[in-house]
Amino acid sequence: MSEKALVNRKDFPLLAKNPDLHYLDSAATSQKPKAVLDAMVAYYENDNANPHRGAYELSARATERYHQARERIAKFVGVADSACLIFVRGTTEALNLVSWTWAKSNVREGDEIVVTGMEHHANFVPWQQVAIERKATLKIARVTDHGAIDMDDLRRLVTPRTRLLAFPHVSNALGTINPVTEIVTLAKSVGAVTVCDGAQAVPHLPVNFDAMGVDFYAFSGHKMLGPMGAGALIGRRETLEKMPPYQTGGDMISVVEDQRSTWNVLPHKFEAGTPNVADAVGLAAACDYLDAIGMDRIREHEIDLMTYAMKEMASVRGVTLFGPEDVKQRSGVVSFTLEGVHPHDIATILDQNGVCVRAGHHCAQPLMRRMHVPATARASVYVYSTRDDIDALVKGVERVNEIFG
Amino acid sequence: MTDALYQELILDHNRKPKNFREMEHADHQLLGHNPLCGDQLTLWLKMDGDRIADVSFKGQGCAISKASASMMTSAVKGKSREEAEAMFNRFHDLVTGKLAESDAKDLGSLRAFGGVSKFPLRVKCASLAWHTLHSALHGEGKTVSTENEGPADMLEGA
After folding, report:
1. Residue A326: inside a domain, yes or no?
2. Fewer Cβ atoms within 10 Å of its own Cβ: the N or the C terminal residue of chain B?
3. A25, A342, A378: best mutation site toward chain B, by most B Cβ within 10 Å?
4. Where are chain B's structural domains?
5. Which residues of A touch B11 (CB under 8 A)?
6. What's the number of domains chain A is made of?
7. Is A133 within a domain?
8. What is the pLDDT, as a whole number, of residue B148?
9. A336 and A193 co-located in one domain
10. What does the pLDDT read at residue B34?
11. Using beta carbons and an 8 Å cutoff, which residues of B are at the interface with A?
12. Which chain A residue has its CA at the smallest distance from B39's CA?
């Protein structure tokens, strides 16, 4: 089934130019289809002006492109009220926005913030810093040996003092798909606000924000075929409206008096300065591309590739696989170590064989400590990946074994 | 090309590192850290006046960083502060490609690291132990990081 890619690799200029490249680092960033690049160029060639400002037709057109992009992306992630989708640079900025605005005005001394032990640093350090600044307590839910959130431990940690519960929809280092509904129900039972890091979910799973029940959801465009520099924070209207602004300046104001100002309506209140229209347009084109394939088919493709990859990798001498054994609970990520070889050496040798993988702590140092490893190597797949890429990975890891004896 | 990097000598030192032990009554003890891949080593130094009487290390890291630490400890033992520093400069030039392997006969077996110059991402691995030694010789007590070693923008991301 996945002997062939789900898409034509020729759609991706970088892959077309490098037919021997086995790009297995899509969890870090995806390659970009020509349709996305073309959409961005077309915006600059045909519609470029500063939106929301000029009293002329071209500026109105730029404004319209920007608005359409927001609507398109909102539809892709199941947001009916598109003004609640705020453009940011990516997941990191989205989560920082929540920590600098909502958390700093709502978390008080003695409150508790709960996170999981599998966070990417982007959904960990902001809450750690809020806890330090507000004299709140940061609690970290245990991760099981199989790389899942220990739900019993999470239930113990969540109390009526919990103001905020942050968790990843999908773990970047292990690929674990977390039980969003169960976590949200738990948080709601004590009135805690939920913040979900969707960076590794939106590219790979059908996501419907309105149906999920989380209060804040963050994702990046560049991991889902879109350009670097465009991502979004989604929130609930009533929450967003009560929050203070993140950055101040142009576009985000209503009236500026000498000594005070009032804020613009959503989403503009959170988008100070000239917006990144071209990247938003590119991300909207990425949504078109993904929808044309179908998110369900993408998921099937990745389950098939993961089933194959885990079976093949497990047969290589010295390999330890991390994360859930059940591919149904795992996104397109294989995190592994090789006995007697540091992941950095694995990555260098694989690179010499045309295989791109990530080696390191994956911005998840607390998780690495939990797994008792300094680092892992991580291979991750996407729509253009094939069994051929997995075969190259396996062959490369066998070559590592040869070199290191 | 990997053969140029993973020479037999380097692999041997990775498997059986020399001076891989803690040291009691050391004059200097310093932690070196490479945030990119999590390489971490502790270096111990015992001085006899201006000379390095004994040097040892322990820690975890990739083959390049471990072998480099192992071979460095063998190379600098008995050397003066100045000699060790001069050796570091030559070594650094070798791994960054400023010094050809053929012109580095004075470095002896350390020349095995000449292949690193073709792998800019690995320069920081090869030089971690040396940076740590350099700081220890200058009496610094803080953690040494090679974050800024090698090309810019090569730090850990998502």
Report:
1. yes
2. N
3. A342
4. 2-141
5. 403-405
6. 2
7. yes
8. 55
9. no
10. 83
11. 1-2, 5-6, 11, 14-15, 36-40, 60-64, 66, 119, 121-122, 125, 156-158
12. A374
Which residue does chain B place closest to A364, by CA atoms? B158
**Do A43 and A147 belong together in one domain?**
yes
Q: Smallest Cα–Cα separation from B113: which of B90, B136, B147?
A: B90
Write the CATH number for A318. Answer: 3.90.1150.10
| Interface mutation vs chain A, best among B2, B13, B121, most A CBs within 10 Å | B2
Domain-embedded: residue A324 = yes
Q: Note down the domain range covering A324.
A: 9-31+294-404
| Residue B156: per-residue pLDDT | 32
CATH of domain B2-141: 3.90.1010.10
Q: Verify whether the Cβ–Cβ distance A403 to B39 is below 8 Å.
A: no
Q: A105 and A223 share a domain?
A: yes
pLDDT in tens, A166-202: 999 999 999 999 999 999 999 999 999 999 999 999 9
Q: What is the pLDDT of residue B142?
A: 55
Residues of A that are catalytic: 363
User: Each residue of B76-98: pLDDT tens digit?
Assistant: 999 999 999 999 999 999 999 99
Q: Do the Cβ atoms of A405 and B11 come within 8 Å? A: yes
Query: What is the maximal distance between C-alpha atoms in chain B?
Result: 47
Structural domain includes residue A4 = no
Q: Is A185 found in the same domain as A274? A: yes
Per-residue CA distances from A222 to A20, A29, A30, A229, B33 (Å): 23, 6, 6, 7, 30
Residue burial A256-283, b: 16+ Cβ < 10 Å; e: rest: eeeeeeebbebbbbbbbeebbbbbbbbb
Residues lower than pLDDT 50 in chain A? 1
Q: Are residues A279 and A267 in the same domain?
A: yes
Same domain, A282 and A306: no
Report the pLDDT value the prediction gives residue B140, as an integer from 0 to 100: 67
Question: How many whole angstroms from its chain centre is CA A64?
Answer: 27
Q: Rounded to the nearest 5°, which phi and psi values hold at B54?
A: -150, 150
Contacting residues for A314 by C-beta, under 8 A, at least 6 apart = A321
Q: What sign does the dihedral A299-A180-A198-A175 (CA atoms) show?
A: negative
A180 and A196 in contact (C-beta within 8 Å)? yes
